[in-house]
Design goal:
The strands form 2 sheets. The chain has a 5-stranded mixed sheet with strand order 1-4-5-7-6. A two-stranded antiparallel sheet has the order 2-3. With 192 residues, the protein is α+β, with helices and mostly antiparallel strands. β2 and β3 form a beta hairpin. 21% of the residues are buried. The chain has 5 helices and 7 strands; from the N terminus they run αββββαβαβαβα.
Length: 192
């Protein structure tokens, strides 16, 4: 069954133009250049529906396996380090690829960032400079259900321990976005 899900995911990536931009095994993201599906208000600017954006997609086989007992401090620190390294790789790609020059924002949607007040994932993304908002998918609740099913299948396939405390029907999507200018200022070459 897991092999079928891997094949289905490969087909969906091809259809959606989701691509690997580097061969670094420590990179957690694939990219997709697309257009904003809705207007987004970010600090200092508004990204209008239809403007070019760069979506970050989790590269599931590169995510470190969560320990059977759940997330440990060592696992979380390693994931944070890989996340920052990956964002720096994305910034380098944006600066090196002229096709990405007009991109207005960087981010995407995920079930991994919980919007509840006690969420460590929300605080982490905010500390990394992203604005975290409620998911506004173009297909509404049906689209969110389909995306959540896809995400759940990928977690079950690549990192089953990450589902220990997560029920499918409890999954909620959120969005994380940052303007391209802020992203490059934070993660571009020469930044700590």
């Amino acid at each position: 069954m897991r092999q079928i899900i891997r094949l289905l995911d490969a087909v969906l990536r091809r259809i959606s133009s989701n691509y690997a931009f580097c061969d670094d095994p420590g990179c957690l993201f694939r990219l997709r250049q697309t257009r904003a599906s809705h207007t987004m208000r970010l600090p200092g600017t508004t990204i209008l529906r239809g403007e070019p954006v760069l979506e970050l997609h989790v590269w599931n086989p590169h995510v470190p396996l969560m320990p059977e007992g759940g997330a440990s401090l060592a696992w979380a620190l390693n994931l944070r380090r890989m996340l920052i390294h990956s964002l720096q790789l994305v910034a380098g790609e944006m600066l090196g690829d002229p096709a990405l020059g007009g991109v207005r924002a960087v981010g995407g949607d995920s079930v991994m960032v919980d919007l509840s007040g006690s969420s460590g994932s929300k605080r982490l993304m905010q500390r990394l400079g992203f604005t975290v908002t409620v998911y506004q998918g173009p297909l509404g609740a049906f689209g969110e259900f389909c995306k959540n099913l896809h995400a759940w299948m990928l977690m079950w396939t690549y990192n089953p321990a990450s589902l220990q405390r997560r029920r499918f029907l409890d999954l909620r999507r959120s969005e994380v976005w940052m303007t391209s200018a802020d992203f490059l200022a934070r993660y571009g070459p020469g930044q700590p």
